[in-house]
């Protein structure tokens, strides 16, 4: 390990020879870059040693494909994992700079949208920590989803340029660029032996340029990579366009190819957005498959043994084209028999499903496939034909299976069903919580479960304790290390030993003091950024996640409206409470954006009303991202996990909050069920209908009667939406009012009364501070099974065939 003096010398050297700067003229941003480059050198030593060991031991390699990796900031995380945090901190301070200001200079890596990307980031951390030969594969988006700004109480989207073009963490490998064919057409033909030999002709070329982000496991022993591909223009113009003298069009097409990695998730409401998004998904898998076959060729020439050395995990449906691209390479380039190629593909690929919502299961128009990926469409047709023939032969008395299992949706515009493709082409399909995995087999794809029950399994999500406890909550981490030793960082089951301390009032008071410090820190940050003063002694009730109707931020703010009206109209008083919201709405999701506006309008009204002073505060924190979550989560008293039962696949914020000592108010949905089982039902504020009751309610069509027959308090809160109380224009929130009273698919009003009662109980319990923090300690103690290390061990042994 380098000494403090060596770190200082390296930082000065990086300033001079990499950044062309002297220490005297360096800014905080310059010091950040110099320190990151210094650290990267140590990571590279670990990387080369890791690859040497993995090659010598012939380790089976896992390729994790995801359209999102929401990494957040990396400097502190990497310093912690290599064991240099304290040395680097002292070195920077001896150079005359504030270490906290230096770390704050780093922008969050904008490579994801929400839970999918945060989960992927946890997983690659755990893979390295567990010494698994693995690499993540994604796209190096120049711009993230968007930067969220709140103007006039509304979400406004701005470009999120996260400095991807000069991130010190990314190592470009231009010499390894890949040529990716796209477009063109198929010409029928035969080979010299008379076999069908389709020729993919007149395709254009996309250029994939790999960039490696080093992923260091805790302790620094294993350094894996996250490989991100950017799109570049090919060195040559389209000769046909150029020869026609259309120079400007030739140049514009080169520029268009570079746009593929410009932005995460282009709007797909219009045709150009659909085309770009499908191109992105193909670009990711085509680049990754080239890396896979290149890596494999270094260790074996027997392509039929590929599944013994390679595992591919598809994180949601976005990379499902990996199945088709693998078949194309094996059949067209390696000239394997179809059945042999299909066996290799199925044994290699596995698929994680992340949604229960039919509308979220990807489909792509066949016409778009014909335009962009004509050879891949041919292969999908062949997969479908052979698969349905097998089904028809095995179950001749069940012809209805063919329509539901087909890889094509035939109603209306013909489309490719990506989830069906992912299931058919994989040897394992997993959900991400026990309830979610059950619902996949019972309601989402029951016919697939009927024909191949052995494929389906569960791997409940987890989060990395390195970032979400050790880094995000250093005060709590110090307490845990003092009580348990440092082993809890890689063995979270050791938290169980805290249970015996729950009756020690001194220990509980220490937990209370840690929570107060975290709340005070968040209050200072909010005061500095938004000019709002919050009371750290109040209960902090937080809901931070992507804004969506099924996550029911609307239920939360309706209850806030109810509480406000109880104070100003009914004369009730309540103990101090702060309601914090954060999250982004998709730019085209009008209802979600309207819910954000409602939250902000309510906050404006509540916070400016002198009658609520000292009782009720509401705040929406803009531009939610990983680094903001790291401040909110350790400061939370009550965690809002209130999605409609049967809609949330798992959730991971529920785990992060509970791991940091927040009690949960939630429904029987996703991983909430397993968290409640772990922490004890007495430490979980359960409310609402379960998934079966929700389905029964929907089928009965009784939502209107609920609104009309419910108690006056609920009706008063709903009517307030169109009363002009929160906006002089009474029509602004009419769409929300109409949704609640005429449909309410996500059952806000069905669960409102139960939610209100649970909130009242939580507020009453919070007044008993010693008992509350005793329960908080028990939450922490029982969260060991929600480490992503446990999750990855399950994937490795049960799906990838890695380890014991």
UniProtKB/TrEMBL annotation:
What Gene3D superfamilies has UniProt attached to this entry?
Glycogen Phosphorylase B (3.40.50.2000)
Q: Look at the named UniProt entry and state the broad enzyme category this protein falls under.
A: transferase
Q: Which domain of life is it from?
A: Bacteria
What cellular component terms from Gene Ontology apply here?
Answer: cytoplasm
Which cofactors go with this protein?
pyridoxal 5'-phosphate
Q: Which E.C. number(s) belong to this protein?
A: 2.4.1.1
Reactions catalysed, as given in the entry: [(1->4)-alpha-D-glucosyl](n) + phosphate = [(1->4)-alpha-D-glucosyl](n-1) + alpha-D-glucose 1-phosphate
One GO BP annotation of this record: glycogen catabolic process
Keyword field: Carbohydrate metabolism, Glycosyltransferase, Pyridoxal phosphate, Transferase
Residues bearing N6-(pyridoxal phosphate)lysine are 656
What family does this belong to?
Belongs to the glycogen phosphorylase family.
The record's function comment reads: Allosteric enzyme that catalyzes the rate-limiting step in glycogen catabolism, the phosphorolytic cleavage of glycogen to produce glucose-1-phosphate, and plays a central role in maintaining cellular and organismal glucose homeostasis.
Q: What is this protein called?
A: Alpha-1,4 glucan phosphorylase
Q: Which organism is it from?
A: Chania multitudinisentens RB-25
């Amino acid at each position: 390990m380098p000494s403090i003096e060596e770190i200082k010398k390296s930082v000065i050297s990086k300033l001079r020879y990499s950044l062309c700067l002297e220490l005297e003229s360096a800014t905080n941003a310059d010091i950040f870059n110099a320190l990151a480059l210094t650290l990267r050198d140590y990571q590279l030593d670990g990387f080369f040693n890791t690859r040497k060991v993995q090659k010598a031991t012939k380790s089976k390699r896992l390729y994790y494909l995801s359209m999102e990796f929401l990494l957040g900031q990396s400097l502190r995380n990497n310093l912690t994992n290599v064991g240099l945090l304290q040395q680097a901190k002292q070195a920077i301070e001896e150079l005359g700079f504030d270490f906290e200001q230096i770390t704050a200079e780093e922008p969050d890596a904008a490579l994801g949208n929400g839970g999918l990307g945060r989960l992927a980031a946890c997983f690659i951390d755990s893979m390295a920590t567990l010494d698994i030969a693995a690499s993540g594969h994604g796209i190096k988006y120049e711009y993230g989803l968007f930067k969220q700004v709140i103007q006039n109480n509304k979400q406004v989207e701005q470009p999120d340029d996260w400095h991807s073009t000069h991130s010190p963490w990314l190592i470009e490998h231009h010499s390894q660029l890949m040529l990716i064919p796209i477009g063109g057409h198929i010409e029928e033909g035969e080979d010299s032996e008379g076999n069908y030999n389709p020729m993919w002709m007149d395709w254009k070329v996309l250029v994939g340029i790999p960039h490696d982000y080093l992923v260091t496991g805790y302790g620094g022993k294993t350094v894996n990579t996250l490989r991100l591909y950017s799109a570049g223009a090919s060195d040559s113009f389209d000769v046909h366009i150029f020869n026609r003298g259309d120079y400007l069009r030739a140049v514009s097409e080169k520029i268009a190819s570079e746009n593929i990695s410009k932005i995460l998730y282009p709007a797909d409401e219009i045709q150009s957005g659909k085309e770009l998004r499908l191109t992105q998904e193909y670009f990711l898998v085509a680049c990754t498959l080239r890396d896979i076959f290149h890596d494999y060729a270094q260790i074996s020439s027997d392509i039929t043994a590929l599944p013994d050395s390679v595992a591919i995990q598809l994180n949601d449906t976005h990379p499902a084209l990996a199945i088709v691209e693998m078949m194309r390479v094996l059949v067209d380039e390696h000239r394997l028999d179809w059945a042999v190629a299909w066996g290799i593909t199925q044994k290699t690929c596995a698929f994680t499903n992340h949604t229960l919502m039919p509308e979220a299961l990807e489909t792509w128009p066949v016409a778009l496939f014909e335009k962009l990926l004509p050879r891949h469409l041919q292969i999908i047709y062949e997969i479908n034909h052979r698969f349905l023939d097998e089904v028809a032969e095995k179950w001749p008395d069940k012809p209805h299976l063919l329509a539901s299992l087909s890889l094509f949706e035939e109603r209306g515009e013909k489309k490719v069903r990506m989830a069906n493709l992912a299931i058919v082409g994989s040897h394992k399909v997993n959900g991400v919580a026990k309830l979610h995995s059950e619902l996949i087999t019972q309601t989402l794809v029951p016919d697939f479960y009927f024909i191949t029950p052995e494929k389906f399994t569960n791997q409940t999500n987890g989060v990395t304790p390195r970032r979400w406890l050790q880094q995000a909550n250093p005060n709590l981490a110090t307490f845990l290390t003092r009580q348990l030793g440092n082993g809890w960082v890689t063995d979270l089951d050791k938290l169980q030993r805290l249970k015996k301390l729950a009756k020690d009032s001194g220990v509980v008071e220490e937990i209370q003091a840690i929570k107060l410090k975290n709340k005070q820190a968040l209050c200072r940050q909010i005061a500095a950024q938004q000019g709002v003063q919050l009371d750290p002694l109040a209960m902090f009730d937080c809901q931070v996640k992507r804004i969506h109707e099924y996550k029911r931020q609307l239920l939360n703010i309706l209850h806030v409206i109810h509480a406000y009206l109880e104070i100003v109209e009914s004369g009730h008083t309540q103990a101090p409470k702060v309601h914090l919201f954060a999250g982004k709405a998709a730019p085209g999701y009008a209802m979600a954006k309207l819910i954000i506006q409602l939250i902000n309008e309510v906050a404006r009204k509540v916070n400016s009303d002198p009658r609520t002073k000292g009782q009720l505060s509401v705040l929406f924190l803009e531009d939610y991202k990983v680094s903001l979550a790291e401040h909110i989560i350790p400061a939370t008293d009550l965690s809002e996990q209130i999605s409609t039962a049967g809609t949330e696949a798992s959730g991971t914020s529920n785990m992060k909050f509970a791991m940091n000592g927040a009690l949960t108010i939630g429904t029987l949905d996703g991983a909430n069920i397993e968290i409640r089982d772990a922490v004890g039902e007495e430490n979980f504020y359960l409310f609402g209908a379960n998934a079966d009751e929700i389905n029964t309610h929907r089928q009965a069509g009784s939502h209107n009667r609920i609104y009309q027959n419910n108690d006056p308090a609920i009706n008063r809160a709903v009517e307030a939406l169109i009363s002009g109380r929160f906006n002089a224009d009474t029509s602004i929130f009419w769409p929300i009012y109409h949704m609640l009273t005429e449909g309410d698919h996500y059952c806000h009003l069905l669960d409102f009364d139960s939610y209100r009662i649970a909130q009242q109980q939580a507020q009453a319990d919070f007044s008993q501070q010693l008992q509350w923090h005793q329960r908080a300690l028990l939450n922490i103690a029982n969260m060991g099974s929600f480490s992503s290390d446990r999750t990855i061990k399950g994937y490795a042994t049960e799906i990838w065939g890695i380890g014991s």
